[in-house]
Amino acid sequence: MKETGVTDRDDKKQNPLWENIKVIVQALILATVIRTVLFQPFTIPSGSMMPTLLVGDYIFVNKFAYGFSKYSLPFSPDLFEGRILKSEPTRGDVVVFRYPPNPDVDYIKRLVGLPGDHIQVKDGVLYINGKAVPKVADGTFNSDYRNDPGRDIPVFRETLDNGRTYDTLDERPNSDGDNTREFIVPPDHYFMMGDNRDNSADSRFDVGMVPAENLVGRASIIFFSLGNDTAFSEIWKWPTNLRFNRFFKGVQ
What we know:
Mean pLDDT is about 85; it is low at about 1-10. This protein has one domain (about 10-250): Umud Fragment, subunit A, CATH 2.10.109. By secondary structure, it is α+β, with helices and mostly antiparallel strands. The protein has helices spanning about 10-15, 15-40, 240; strands at about 40-45, 55-60, 95-100, 105-115, 120, 125-130, 130, 135-140, 155-160, 165-170, 185, 190-195, 210, 215-225, 250. The chain is globular and about 70 Å long. A hairpin with a 2-residue loop joins strand 6 (about 125-130) and strand 7. Helix content is about 15%, strand content about 30%.
């Protein structure tokens, strides 16, 4: 006579440990899909995008915004060339991209030049296709970043021809990036600049033009922020160094 009862499969279904394992695996798969396809967290390690982004800001990057390249995927596998589901960036977007001379490194800058644009900086003023980008004084900026302390740094608000407006820093007159040659942006490339104009390695220098394939995504929101060079692991320092006013702040 054949015995009746639960099978091994039924045992697994009724086993709380097995159910917990399934939930964890499903959560990991979901997190991987979200990180790969939709949003990826990044930390701001330097002051090149001050005052828009501060050292210690933690941001989400929208990877769907421009479509996907191999750099959108973990380990950047050579599964295809170019971009799929491609969408064009907008002038003024804050973009995470792979550094062209070394694609293993992520950079974040503001996109100011589209394919075919003529870009130049003259006396600290950005020119796009021969027209000066309006630049007006907008107060001063103080940093809590010890490697770039910056006290009472002049702030200037720029407004692009599409209405995008943002603050930039101009710490030193006549710095290396305040007067450049005219750059012509090639097809399928972009010209990037940091908002901290005197302290940014960008397309004016060794970064060069950024290929469309190197775009990772658009910075969308600051979800967490720690000041005074506080490491994420230094939880005991959080109460005095959390920048609550930056939590869930959109990146403009």
